[in-house]
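Give me the 3D structure for Peptidase A1 domain-containing protein.
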Amino acid sequence: MRQTGKYPLQFTEFIEATFELGVTFWVAKFDGILGLGNKEISVGGAAPVWYNMLSEGLIKEPVFSFWLNRNTEEEGGEIVFGGSNPNHYKGNHAYVPVTRKGYWQFNMGVVYIDGKTTGYCSGGCAAIADSGTSLFTGPS
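Predicted structure for Peptidase A1 domain-containing protein (140 residues):
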């Protein structure tokens, strides 16, 4: 992990999951999850590492970004605390407010794939960005 802050993190409480219900956790290729959710949904009331990095002044700007690579054998994903890596996207980011605390929930408009509308969320809908989820989901 590239460190962009000035000092190492002083204190973070980590919670280990030793058992999870469901076959997904047995057969999936998980190697760990770094909880980046809002503190309202943290297990045991622990402050997520993101809050600790902010409170200790380790982050240049209050933004984190993650890139998920489809070819994990060649190169894994990347997380950047305090910004983003322009090598992994084109254009500009659109910053939107969080509409519900807990998950990083926000409002979004129509979904496009390859520049063509899918019709999903054409009237607007709620969405979440969740770095601890093992899959992508959308409207049914």
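The longest helix spans residues 49-55. Let me know if you want a second pass.
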